[in-house]
Amino acid sequence: MSNFVERSACRGAHPKSVDLKNKYVRDELISRLMEDRAVLRIVRAPNGFGKTTLIGQYADVVFSFEDVYWLNCQSPCFIRDLDSGYLNENIEEASLVVLDEMPHLDSERTNKLSKFIDLLLKQNIEVILTVTPINDTISEHQKTSLILNSRDMLISDSEFKIFRHKKTIKGDVGRIISVVKYGLKEILSSSMTEDFNEDVYAAIFYIYIFMEGDLSSLRKYKFVQYFAQDYLYLGVNENNDSFSVPYVSVNNICKIYNNKIDRIAKSFGFENKDSFGQYLAKKFVHRGNYSRATEALQHLCLVKTKYMYLKKFNLLSFKKGIIIEMNNLYNSVMSSRIKIDSNCVTYQAWRKYLLGDSTEAIKYAYKVIDNTESSIINKMMSAFIFMSCGASPEKHQAQRLISQLRSMLQDSNNIGRRTKRLFTYKLCLSLSDIYFAIYQNSENVFDLFNQMEPGDIQIISAICILKHLKYVPANQFEQIKVASFFQNTYSIINDMSHNFYFYLLVQAYIEASKIIEQYVAELNKDIIVEVNQYFEEFNKQKFKYLNVSNLVKVKTKEITKDSNLPKLVVKLLGGLEVNIAGKQLLNKDFGRQNVKLLLALLVLSNGNEVSKDYLASNIWPECDIHRARRNLNSCWCVLNKIIGQPYIMKNQKCYRINETLLDSDVLSLDNFCSDMTMGTIDPDGWYESIKENKNYFEYDLLPSEDENSIIIKKRQYYKNKVIDALLSASQRLLEVNEERQALWFAYRAIDRDDKREDVYLNLMDIQLACGQRSPAIETFTACKKFLDKEYGISPSFKMQKMYKKAVHEFS
């Protein structure tokens, strides 16, 4: 009997690929599967819809996994046995045969599979097949089959109500909910595991990046019909010729499509992702979605492009309410070595001020003041920040600065020598008069305001006055002047809502109105309501920013508190090594395998809290939960004796490792791979890093641990991440004409893993670019032998086309 078929017999135990813990049993779908058990039943839906879990539940409920064969169709052995006919001969005493995750088959193999299914059905053996829509070639041959499609697999409202109250249910059901109700990024990530071609990935990227639109740009792709029928999370409506999907941030989309964005850009006719990012930004601006435009610039464009748009959008960002996004864009530009002009720094100071981060606002204001190239208007604006949110030293410095600027402005020679914009300097002089009157608590401030020309300076003057009124005793101003000033500021709010200073004026008005509204007999209630609503919307951004900022500050405090402690260094690649302050902890300290495993899982969590129940059930899956918890407590006591606090910490329900005191080769590998994939191209730096850190690229994660499913998945994840990073680096180097360096990285990739066709394809592409026709032909031959031996298939069309080109040019 074939070993593959023999291993596929369940014998009362569910396959390792089927996880039935904490999964909601979908009785309605199981009933559907039982309606006609004499025909082939096909469960056809994208990855993430719970196909395997549903069939596992059916096999458990109906057969208790007795006399069940569970064939993993993704295994090369399945293709081998299908071709040889072993499957037909060796399924014995079966009640149910499950063909799980069927790949795309050619017509010859589809015919063989159909005959195999017919043979099983004639023997009264039930057959259920799971397949993604794009791989379904069998339903055309089995006309009488029962098909559960994507819509059938969606969770119902009644099931959702049950699920909502059962927080322990995780996995596929939750992902199905996310498709329809929330559109979380996890379901988009699952699309990356399907065997799509580049055009399909480009179309999905287009849909999720634009969120809604018509299908005119996608009509060239024949598979759009698939999207409407089966890939429901893409929100394609053929009747309206449109698509609409829930929000997923540009950041998350770019992370998911990390290695494909350059190819996607080229499929849409752009030279690189920088020009593609500019195109997307212009599209979003045209739609009025400035927030999305700024995100696209931040995550897709080069630093020079970001800086150009940063200067262009500075004023507009305050009108459109994209303060946090522009703050993030500025930070991404600042992290490079590009020189930022004082105008951009001034706007960043005001953004920080608006977002409630007074410390950062003052820091940027100091940069403007200290910069000899800063204009007087920028220094005036910085003086306002000192006045508004600084302590006594800043307020005194603002006063001195204003006096200096007044002297400079009153000197006509300086005006003529320093600028041609005389009008701007006159406005600055008027503003300095307002500042000066405020410092003297003079009632003349209102008269000065009314005499000013309408425009930016008048608005900032109004802001200063409103800010000032909070601190002035009420009896110092006459009621009529206060009322007149308020009426003027109302008209400014109403007429100048598009202006750079609108937010500041609203903020200042809200702060002042509670104190001085007693002076105003009749206020425009509609404007007050409008201002309050606008301010409430703005505050959402402010609170969002402050929550993130506070989280960073908490982590910073934690780092400061523990900064005098040596780091815990944990190496997981190639085997476990642990040391503190250069002193290596001996292997005998980790005599129990599960203690090693516990430490590894905490390190891989990167400082996040890990549930005790999660650790217990995954380290001891064969034990009941109570016994597993006792085992976990025992291992924790051992680990605590070896390492102890503050390196590892616990609370009532969770364990975590202190990431501020952790140094791990796995975390370093993550950063290095990201740098090769998305960072600045640095061939020499990458080369030296690989030479110095061979463990990153030559060894697997904890090779001795071959039983824990999490470690096995993580091991494969990091291995694939290294390969993907090497492939990305080689292609990026090729694009900047570093062919020799690109070739070196391509060879490192195939040395690490010669079981992937894309690795051969990458090497062959670069060999041809270097003029190495003969080695390219040898690479094709090696790939062809590997694919034929392992999978019984031929190289892809793209690789065959490249081979023909190499042979033609070589001859």
Descriptive overview:
- By secondary structure, the chain is α/β, with parallel strands linked by helices.
- The protein has 40 helices and 15 strands.
- It has a 5-stranded parallel β-sheet with strand order 2-3-4-1-5, sandwiched between helices.
- Helix 22 packs across helix 24, helix 28 (502-516) packs across helix 29 and helix 33 runs parallel beside helix 36 (709-735).
- The longest helix is centred in the C-terminal third of the chain and has 38 residues, at 525-562.
Quick description:
With 811 residues, the chain is an alpha/beta fold. It contains 40 helices and 15 strands. The model is unreliable at 167-184, 415-423, 519-523 and 549-563 (pLDDT under 50).
Number of helix segments?
A: 40
Instruction: Tell me the major beta sheet.
Output: 5 strands, parallel
Sheet/helix structural class: alpha/beta
- The total count of strands amounts to 15
Tell me the fraction of residues in β-strands, as a range: 5-15%
List keywords for this structure.
811 residues; alpha/beta; five-stranded parallel β-sheet; 15 strands; elongated
Record the SSE blueprint.
Elements: H1 3-8, H2 27-33, E1 41-44, H3 51-63, E2 68-72, H4 76-84, H5 86-90, E3 96-102, H6 107-122, E4 126-131, E5 146-148, H7 150-153, H8 157-164, H9 172-182, H10 185-191, H11 198-210, E6 212-214, H12 224-229, E7 236-237, E8 242-244, H13 250-256, H14 261-267, H15 273-287, H16 290-300, H17 303-320, H18 323-334, H19 342-354, H20 358-370, H21 376-389, H22 392-410, H23 412-418, H24 422-439, H25 444-451, H26 456-469, H27 479-495, H28 502-516, H29 525-562, E9 568-571, E10 577-580, E11 583-585, H30 593-604, E12 610-611, H31 612-619, H32 625-642, E13 648-650, E14 654-657, E15 662-664, H33 665-678, H34 683-692, H35 694-698, H36 709-735, H37 739-752, H38 757-769, H39 773-790, H40 797-810
Parallel strand pairs: 1-4, 1-5, 2-3, 3-4, 9-15
Antiparallel strand pairs: 6-8, 7-8, 9-10, 10-11, 12-14, 13-14
Helix pairs in contact: 11-14, 15-16, 16-17, 16-18, 17-18, 18-19, 19-20, 19-21, 20-21, 21-22, 22-24, 24-25, 24-26, 26-28, 28-29, 30-32, 31-32, 33-36, 36-37, 36-38, 37-38, 38-39, 38-40, 39-40
